[in-house]
């Protein structure tokens, strides 16, 4: 199994622990990753302003991966959703494709061959498989309740992303439970983290983040689990900002799925970058059992 | 005399330029921080001293060796560029030390130093060739290979030209001197101590035969005896101080090429002309150095070392302000940042050069030095600075260690305060700004967002209407057909008003009085589109408060692509605001 790894912009700059833990976990699961240094922004952040600019940016990435004959795995759900959308638009609109290719050709690239664009969770669930993951879990969590946050841009629009059942998704819950933790049912689990509006309408953005945190907490979760840098930053540094500026303390620290899985696999904690999270994950280790129950 | 005067003038200009430039590091500021010059100078001195006498000196030495001398950051990026730069920089340095400053360095280090004996004669040519090879690679890269986003400006032209002129004039000068008969005569007078005419003629024959001199008096073929006599005289009078010029292989080759014209060139004093060109080019390079790209010889090591020891968060704001201005002078316009820029693809779409970090550097320099920039120019720089995903790649790859990302953060705020609305503030590019809002004053943080909303949303009549019932005026018949992006084309037309979109929208649910906050609710926006009421559809706050979570679209029983239509309406609203709408 081999994929081009698409990191996007946030992970290398601000959520490095996601990259290092994902690499460590995928190594254990025998998934090979190829780095393509020429990758650029997926285009998601400019969609509000200019659709063609977004499609061009995505298409360039898709063309770069296609040039090497590789499918792509994204760690970020917004990158994933955007590139899926761009691939869809390029397929159905030949005029747009010609326009984009007119730009790409200047760099010796063309968008012709379709490639598979996958989110990391989807690769784990469909390609690696729950059984293989469970096999590698050395120290399953016990009595750990997790609120799995699905993230909008992977789930919807389902016609385009084809990630999971948009109304009742289960992939992420099953993956969380593969680590031995219990994935709780919570009322706002399919809602947005609030990140898309941070910087534009902070009040609204933080209101929505707070609602989600409260909902997860109410369902009895000790940690919230993410698989997207935007969601992670929102629940991590922005939750911290919320506590500081609004005085509300939800005490629901987010953990990236790769960190959670990595811990249960017995991967070195430094590699999982637990210390890089803004809100400390102090209690998490306490839920690890000493070995596999057979 | 002329040589000395021009040297002193060059040194004076260089010195004044240096003072002017360094003072600008303390006078100008990239961010808002209004810190008095005296405080910045004091902070810099304190910072330098406290670093030199602390364990940080180890880091400093490490940076000096790995980044300044070995230049590992360039090596990691591109091997060809590393070879190119090493050729130019190492060989030029060696030429400077051994040849240009020979009377201060070489003559003192080596008691038997003569520029005309080996190994010095050979080394000078070798170093010259190495510099030229480097310059050749630079020309190949910038003008033939021409990778996209590698921009070449007048400063790059100047740098290549000045290096090439110095090197080529040096080689030609050497060649002209090798073949020059008058030069031979003056050497005989100065060092030969010979009186006998025959002896001098024999020596001349020998030099014509063996050393490349072109003589008006003697010509090959030579008599064996004459040559033997010439060799004898040569070994007695010349050989100790003059190696065979064949060792100066580039000069010798240049001499061979020039030799058919040697006598006329000698008559017009060609070697003197070349000598003037050669030293004047060096002096111009020296005088202009603080104002040219070549200033990086001083500023790049400085930037690398300063950034090596200045920790984020721990440094005095006064020193950060000074460092950021200095960094603008440290930029070599190598374009590594632009080649790696994650927003590079947007540059090819928006064709605004300021999106590329290497080009932004020059614009920012003009901006902070108070140059008179037009509204349009400022607007372009602002857009360029905003269309940045803050991925930090530019900062990570910069061979001279400039912290570009922090520079952009400060410049962004400075520009936004100037008051021109920036549509891109209403995009997810704002996330980074939002995450660092604690570093920005509350009003300065919100103003640009309000201004952009005002420019995009506030212009539409909807906001001014006080009555509950909308008149069916302002219908744009073509509007419906123009909303044709992709698969959502006209899906709004089949909306039957069930309001599922509005009832599942988490944004709507967040407000007690959503219609007041958002102007129109999602189903109303769809309805406005169906009616062709453009001003209503693109003029509501709902569009800009949309999370793009796609819940509405996913749950619509009619398959209306609400979120995608929103995207399209936002694009159109921006086009209208910047005067590019239909």
UniProtKB/TrEMBL annotation, chain A:
Q: Which UniProt keywords apply?
A: Oxidoreductase
Q: Name one Pfam family in it.
A: CCG
- Gene3D superfamilies, sorted: 1.20.1050.140, 3.40.50.11810
| Single GO MF annotation | oxidoreductase activity
Sequence ranges assigned to domain Cysteine-rich in this UniProt record: 4-83, 146-236
User: InterPro entries, from UniProt?
Assistant: Cys_rich_dom, HdrB/HdrD_reductase
PANTHER family in the record, alphabetically?
A: COB--COM HETERODISULFIDE REDUCTASE SUBUNIT B 1
What is the official name of this protein in its record?
Cysteine-rich domain-containing protein
From TrEMBL, chain B:
Renumbered to this chain, the signal peptide range is: none
Q: Establish whether keyword Iron-sulfur is in the entry.
A: yes
Q: Name one Pfam family in it.
A: Fer4_8
Question: What keywords sit in the KW lines?
Answer: Iron, Iron-sulfur, Membrane, Metal-binding, Transmembrane, Transmembrane helix
Query: What InterPro entries does the database record attribute to this sequence?
Result: 4Fe4S_Fe-S-bd, 4Fe4S_Fe_S_CS, HdrC_iron-sulfur_subunit, Helical_ferredxn, NarG-like_sf
Q: Which residues are in the 4Fe-4S ferredoxin-type domain?
A: 377-407, 485-515
- Which GO CC terms are listed, alphabetically? plasma membrane
One MF annotation (Gene Ontology) recorded for this entry = metal ion binding
List membrane-spanning regions: 7-28, 48-70, 82-101, 121-140, 160-179, 273-291
Which PANTHER family does this entry report, sorted A to Z? HETERODISULFIDE REDUCTASE RELATED PROTEIN (PTHR43255:SF2), IRON-SULFUR-BINDING OXIDOREDUCTASE FADF-RELATED-RELATED (PTHR43255)
Q: What is this protein called?
A: 4Fe-4S ferredoxin-type domain-containing protein
């Amino acid at each position: 199994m081999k994929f081009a790894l698409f990191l996007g912009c946030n992970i290398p700059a601000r959520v490095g622990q996601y990259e290092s833990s994902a690499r460590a976990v995928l190594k254990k699961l025998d998934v090979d990753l190829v780095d393509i240094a020429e990758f650029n922004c997926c285009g998601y952040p400019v969609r509000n302003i200019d659709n063609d600019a977004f499609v061009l940016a995505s298409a360039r990435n898709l063309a770069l991966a296609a040039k090497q004959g590789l499918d792509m795995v994204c760690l970020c759900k917004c990158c994933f959703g955007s590139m899926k959308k761009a691939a869809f638009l390029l397929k159905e609109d030949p005029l747009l494709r010609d326009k984009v290719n007119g730009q790409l050709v200047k760099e010796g690239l063309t968008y012709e061959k379709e490639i598979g664009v996958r989110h990391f969770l989807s690769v784990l669930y469909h390609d690696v498989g729950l059984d293989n993951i469970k096999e590698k879990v050395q120290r399953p969590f016990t009595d750990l309740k997790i609120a799995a946050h699905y993230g909008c841009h992977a789930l919807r629009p389902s016609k385009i992303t084809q990630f999971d059942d948009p109304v009742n998704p289960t992939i992420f819950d099953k993956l969380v439970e593969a680590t031995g933790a219990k994935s709780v049912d919570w009322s706002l689990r399919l809602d947005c983290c609030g990140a898309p509006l941070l910087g534009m309408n902070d009040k609204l953005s933080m209101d929505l983040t707070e609602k989600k945190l409260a909902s997860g907490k109410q369902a009895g979760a000790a940690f919230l689990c993410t698989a997207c840098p935007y969601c992670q930053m929102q629940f991590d540094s922005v939750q911290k900002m919320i506590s500081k500026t609004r005085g509300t303390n939800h005490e629901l620290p987010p953990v990236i799925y790769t960190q959670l899985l990595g811990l249960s696999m017995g991967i070195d904690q430094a590699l999982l970058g637990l210390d890089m999270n803004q809100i400390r994950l102090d209690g998490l280790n306490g839920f690890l059992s000493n070995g596999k129950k057979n | 005399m002329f040589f000395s005067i021009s040297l002193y003038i060059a040194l004076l200009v260089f010195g004044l330029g240096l003072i002017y430039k360094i003072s600008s590091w303390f006078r100008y500021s990239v961010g808002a921080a209004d810190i008095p010059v005296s405080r910045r100078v004091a902070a810099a001195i304190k910072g330098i001293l406290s670093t030199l006498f602390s364990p940080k000196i180890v880091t400093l030495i490490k940076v000096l060796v790995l980044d300044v001398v070995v230049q590992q950051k360039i090596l990691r990026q591109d091997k060809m560029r590393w070879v190119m730069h090493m050729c130019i920089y190492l060989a030029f340095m060696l030429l400077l030390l051994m040849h240009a400053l020979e009377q201060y360095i070489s003559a003192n280090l080596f008691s038997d130093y003569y520029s005309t004996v080996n190994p010095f004669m050979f080394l000078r040519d070798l170093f010259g060739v190495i510099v030229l090879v480097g310059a050749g690679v630079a020309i190949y890269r910038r003008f033939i290979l021409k990778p996209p986003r590698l921009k070449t400006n007048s400063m790059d032209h100047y740098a290549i030209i000045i290096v090439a002129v110095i090197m080529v004039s040096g080689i030609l000068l050497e060649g002209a001197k090798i073949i020059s008969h008058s030069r031979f005569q003056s050497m005989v007078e100065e060092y030969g101590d010979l009186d006998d005419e025959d002896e001098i003629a024999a020596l001349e024959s020998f030099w014509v035969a063996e050393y490349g001199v072109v003589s008006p008096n003697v010509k090959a073929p030579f008599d064996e005896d004459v040559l033997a006599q010439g060799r004898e005289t040569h070994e007695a009078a010349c050989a100790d101080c003059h190696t065979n010029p064949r060792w100066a292989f580039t000069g010798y080759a240049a001499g061979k090429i020039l030799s058919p014209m040697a006598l006329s060139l000698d008559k017009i004093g060609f070697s003197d002309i070349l000598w003037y060109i050669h030293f004047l080019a060096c002096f111009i390079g020296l005088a202009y150095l603080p104002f040219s790209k070549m200033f990086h010889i001083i500023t790049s090591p400085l930037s690398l070392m300063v950034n090596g020891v200045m920790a984020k968060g721990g440094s005095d704001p006064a020193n950060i302000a000074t460092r950021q201005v200095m960094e603008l002078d440290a930029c070599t316009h190598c374009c590594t940042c632009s080649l790696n820029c994650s927003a590079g693809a947007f540059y090819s779409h928006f064709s605004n050069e300021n999106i590329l970090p290497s080009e932004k550097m020059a614009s920012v320099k003009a901006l902070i030095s108070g140059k008179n920039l037009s509204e349009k120019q400022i607007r372009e720089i602002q857009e360029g600075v905003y269309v940045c995903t803050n991925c930090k790649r530019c900062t990570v790859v910069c061979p001279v260690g400039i912290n570009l990302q922090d520079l952009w953060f400060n410049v962004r705020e400075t520009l936004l305060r100037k008051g021109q609305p920036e549509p891109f503030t209403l995009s997810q590019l704002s996330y980074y700004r939002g995450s660092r809002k604690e570093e920005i004053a509350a009003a300065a943080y919100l103003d640009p967002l309000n201004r952009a909303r005002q420019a995009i949303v506030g212009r539409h009549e909807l906001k001014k209407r006080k009555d509950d019932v909308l008149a069916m005026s302002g219908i744009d018949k073509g509007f419906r057909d123009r909303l044709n992006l992709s698969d959502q084309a006209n899906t709004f037309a089949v909306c039957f008003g069930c309001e599922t979109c509005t009832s599942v929208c988490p944004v709507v649910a967040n407000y007690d009085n959503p219609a007041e906050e958002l102007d129109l609710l999602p189903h109303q926006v769809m309805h406005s589109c169906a009616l062709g009421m453009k001003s209503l559809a693109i003029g509501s706050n709902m569009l800009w408060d949309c999370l793009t979570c796609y819940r509405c679209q996913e749950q619509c029983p009619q398959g209306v692509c609400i979120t995608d239509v929103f995207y399209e309406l936002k694009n159109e609203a921006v086009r209208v605001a910047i005067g590019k709408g239909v």
